[in-house]
Fold each of these.
Amino acid sequence: MTDTPQLLLGHHLKVLKLPTFLREYDKLARQCATEGVEHTGYLLRLAELELIERERRMVDRRIKEARFPAVKSLDSFDFLALPSLNKTLVLELARSEYVLRRENVIAVGNSGTGKSHVALGLGLAACQKGLSVGFTTAAALVNELLEARDEKRLLRLQRQLAAYKLLVIDELGYVPLSQTGAELLFEVFSQRYERGSTIVTSNLPFDEWTGVFASERLTGALLDRLTHHVHILEMNGDSYRLKQSKRRQRGARATDIPDSSPEE
């Protein structure tokens, strides 16, 4: 009979969906008793633990729903390798206030300079601020839109894309788009205009975007919407990936040099 209250408490905490309460209440009770903490202080600590764990789970869920190809933070970005990048602006954007203002971010520069890393870092920061985020590449998004159109579910997909507080579209310009694909992608940007924030990364300067969309009219209308409220990150410089590759090759060659010491 002495176990009945504990069993009931465990059952009730499960029903109330308080897993941290269930896991920590006994250990924390002994700790508070040792420290002479009153019952209100004990309950406060227990509630704080539950809130911290609940927020962690919510962030994990947002990250999973964002479908990042990799989870990268700005803490691991090497700003020294790209002096042209405005670090102050990037760190300001990491506060995610631009998302609340429905502003856009465009990262433009040659390949290998970390545009995707910065986009992933800003997306992760937005998840940690409690905002819904979606991540995709331009080519993958266009394919998804074309498939949805063929399967009569385009409207549902468009609503889903419009609902994100922040939509990250990576690698715009790497693959030329068909006329239909370009029009569908334009529609995504149009539906998000002044309703949600969009991050775009591209290896092409703006005056070459016409080659991707194959229409000056469409490109002009797109840039008009994207750049109305925008933060532009100039990310031209030496390829970070290429420098890493060369560094690894030099290290490999160094280890391959035979020992010149005389044999014993």
Amino acid sequence: MEPDGTEAELARLVRAHERWRARGVFNLLPSENALSPTARAYLDSDLAGRYTLPIETKIGTEIADNSYGGTRYTDAIEKLGNEAAARLFHGRFATTRPLSGHLAAMSALVPLLPRGSRILAIAPDQGGYDGYAPGFLPALFGWDVRPLPAGGPGFTVDAEAAEAEIRREKPNAVVLGQSLFLFPYPLHAIAEAAHAVDALVFYDASHVLGLVAGGAFQDPLRDGADVLYGSTHKSFPGPQGGLLVTDREDLFRQIDPALVWRVFDNAHWNRIAALSQTLLELERFGAEYARLVVENAQALGRALEGEGLPIECSAQGYTASHQLFLDRAAIERRLNVGVPTLGRRWERSRLITDLIGRLGTAEVTRLGLVPSDMPRLANLLVRAGPRKERIGSEVLAWRREFRGLRFV
């Protein structure tokens, strides 16, 4: 049968999106990245419609080791990816099954924290992830969440303040997770204080996972965290999804059996294949990629301030991650414009950002931009934003110079 008009419209929209976002803009969203051609191909493989469910259960008089037949390659792919994740993040146990960073958090926290557990987490108004706020995951699972102070420049956590709060609250867990994430945590001090009161330390690396993989941020499991988890599509250049790693067998033996039929069922093995590919890629080029992402972010911060656009944390070098924060108050005061308006102007000129004041350099680094390109990028941002110039054709011409990915 011929496609009807609705199917044709869907095809048109998908093609238009591909032209626009994959080839027609510079993406500065800190929450997105570009997959390698090989990883994208695995998403489109036959694995997309397949299941596997290893079990050890008696069916009649016989033992079944999997609910499904035909899984020999699926199971081997998952094993390969789990082993790569464990190597890359310096743990002994890993799972690539979580379908997102949020579900990776659930996968780690729910089996280990019974209802009534007390949690310290960074509040959203201090850069923390909203999912750990009282009305979200804690409300769903009956946890008592209290704020871990992060009031330093760029929402940094002060070691002495954190230690004092941990001693005072005596939580069951400290959950370190930020959406506005510029600088590493004082993790040794936090872990020492937490373990002294028998609290677990969970490190949500969603934004910085690619930098952790490349050794350019911090090494959570070696620095004292009990469980590392996060999204796999931000600074980590993989498919949308999540992963979880720990060096503690006792914790993993509680986490792993609690995943299937509780957090999810089918874990999408085309995604796991694409994630496994990205893990293997980062074993090859992760150090160079992560270093360059951070250097680009710092260079872009300097260049934007040089162009008159205020950026947070200039005295601290702007950032140690892939993120920059626009100084929203200074922008409104000096330039008489709000950050959401700037974001809409940038999009009009093919420069994609979020509307809350964050810029990210992970995807443009993957395209091939280097620190010497940041003054040109900053100039485009200032001309398209505060100066309200329509420069989409100029941006597109430059974007077309980058036809592939630097790191594959």
